Fold this protein.
Amino acid sequence: MDIPKFEDIAENKTLDGDKIKIDDVLNNEIIVTGFHVSSSKYQSKGCSFCTKVQFYYADDEKEEKKVFFSGSSVIKDQAEEMEKKLSEKGLEYRFKTTVKKVGNYYSFT
């Protein structure tokens, strides 16, 4: 009997990597490899969710994983939209982008 592996069927895989501030990622080309949305620990400050984004810098030959956290609804919506579009095409969740600060919010561009 074939026993499936967790990594082959789990929807919420662990996103590991060095934690860095989103401002340190700004204007750098990155490859996003995963994301997870959860309840924010800052709900008292008006943010109900937190999106954890796993990535590596596009010019990093070693592809060292890093993560940043964001309460941006734009980042969350864009990550979910990419997940849907890549899934429809049967593609792995991986895309190239740059994080920009537009006014008072963050966005993939």
